[in-house]
Amino acid sequence: MKRSICFMFAVLSAFVLSAQTPTQPDVATEQTVTTEEGKKIENKVIENYRRSSLYTVLVEHNNTKYDKDIAQAFMSMPIPDKFNNHDLTVKSFASTAKNKKVSAKKRGTAKDPNIKATNIFMQENDVARALISKWFNRNPVTGAFDMGLISERAYYDASAKAIQEADASDAGRKMLIDAGPDLIGKTFMVVNDITFIDKGEKSQKAAVGIAVLGALAGAFFGSNVSKSMNNLAVAVNEIDGFRVNITSYLYRLKWNNDILNTIYESYWVDASTPDAARKLAYEKSDIFDMEYVGFTTTQAGITTSKSFDKRSHSEQMLAVCTRALDKSIVELQRSYDEFKVNTPICAVDYDKKLVEAKIGLKEGVNTKYRYEVLMADESKGYRTYKRVGMLKPVAGKIWDNRYGALEEAEMHKAAAAAGKRTKSKEADAEGGDAYLTSTTFEIISGAGDIHEGMLIREAVIKH
Fold first, then answer.
1. SS3 40
2. Angle at 262 between CA 256 and CA 264, to 5 degrees
3. How far apart are CA 264 and CA 287, in angstroms?
4. C-alpha closest to that of 362 among 416, 332, 322, 311
5. How far apart are CA 301 and CA 307, in angstroms?
6. Confidence (pLDDT) at 288
7. Stretch 9-31: mean pLDDT, rounded?
8. What is the tens place of the pLDDT at every residue in 201-235?
């Protein structure tokens, strides 16, 4: 009881202080990079770069609170746009754990119930073979392969006829030697265990507690104290929003030259030359597998006011779950180098030594981190990358590109104009601007070698 009373008065103090602080409306301006002469730099959308491919799966906790809401939100979530969508038909499986919480000691080990359930899921759905089949557009009836999807994602300039003719030729093999490591070798599955916390429920309970405490305080200290406590109860009950915990398990499709050679030598079937024996050999092969990489656990949420946030429960849930997955993917990239993604530079200002790229808070951009600039090198007959420079994000010019960020910015702007403080401390701390269309980086090395279209990738600097 003593702890509860201390909490109530701490909240009251914060409420009183916030009431005494004048509200500053948010000012949103569109940022552009210009040269010394004032010439506007074109901010281009560059799509033709090789992305990693992603298959996302949900661990469902059936018959638990909000399980259907989470599942519905997850199935509506788009694949992050820095990845190719490599989803399979099956997108979820039921948890076998008796308790939805996994102990810290078990998490990520062979004793983790999510690891056990994932292994069963991958085996029952033949996940590794299914991912390979999707890469080659394999016809399940005839067993025929083609190179269409690989050519498309590798951005080869070849007609459909040329691709078909290259299927079983040396040209087709060379195409895979070049593109395979960038594409098939960077095919990942992320299994997500999402648990839900209702902040609105907590605020409601807190409001009831404060109201009861106010009645008691009024009996001892007078009506003014009771009235203040009642006002506080109303304010606390106004708090709404959600928070989720997410544990994401990262798996990688096993791919190497031995697998490539076996496919060509033993399994490859062209549409024009069916081969039942090769088709059956592929379907019975045991060379396809997934490798467990690791896991991360993080949180995401939104805190809003019931009076101005008119989004439905399902809309807010979708926003929170999408942000949670984006945040979890960022944490996985920071923990496991092979999962890091590349993003092209879309504008360069050589005078001010600034560049722009279309990434932001969604990808975890933060002034604490540094980014390396990579240039493609194809001198060996296949593509490699070498570092040519380093960048750092410019404070105040980080794009808030998280799901629903622009919509929230508009709501906060309207509320601020009405003299209301609507943003949480967490939102302020993120430091992003939803009205931007890209993030600006300062060139800290390699200025003369950095050009539009080169790729940037986060290089973690530990402090």
1. strand
2. 105
3. 13
4. 322
5. 18
6. 97
7. 34
8. 444 444 344 344 444 444 444 455 444 434 433 33
C-alpha 176, offset from chain centre: 28
State pLDDT tens for residues 172-196.
667 777 788 889 999 999 999 998 7
pLDDT higher than threshold 60 for residue 280: yes
d(CA 277, CA 97): 42
CA distance 353 to 371: 15
User: 74-82 long-range CB contacts below 8 Å, 24 or more apart?
Assistant: 74/192, 74/194, 74/321, 76/318, 77/318, 77/321, 77/322, 77/325, 78/322, 79/54, 80/54, 80/325, 80/326, 80/329, 80/362, 82/51, 82/52, 82/341, 82/343, 82/359, 82/363
d(CA 115, CA 101): 13
Q: Tokens standing for 130? A: 């299914």
State residue 427's pLDDT score.
47
Contact 100/66 with Cβ under 8 angstroms?
no
**Which two tokens mark 416?**
């601020």
d(CA 358, CA 44): 9
Helix (H, G, I), strand (E, B), or coil: what is residue 316?
A: helix
CA angle 287, 289, 293 (to 5 degrees): 145
In terms of Cβ atoms closer than 10 Å to its own Cβ (0-12, 13-18, 19+), residue 240 is buried
Pseudo-torsion of CA 71, 73, 76, 78, nearest 10°?
A: -110
The better pLDDT of the pair 278, 376 is held by 278
Cα separation, 351 vs 34, in Å, equals 9
CA–CA separation, 252 vs 248, rounded Å?
13
What does pLDDT average to over the chain?
78
- Assign 315 a pLDDT band (cuts: 50, 70, 90): confident
CA atoms of 392 and 355, how far apart (whole Å): 10
Does 358 score more than 90 pLDDT?
Answer: yes
Lowest mean pLDDT among 9-18, 44-53, 69-78, 416-425: 9-18
**Residue-wise pLDDT tens digits, 399-422:** 999 988 888 888 878 777 777 665
Alpha carbon 106 to its chain's center: 25
Q: Quote the pTM value.
A: 0.79
Give the integer Cα–Cα distance in Å for 215 and 169: 84
Q: Which amino acid is at 242?
A: F
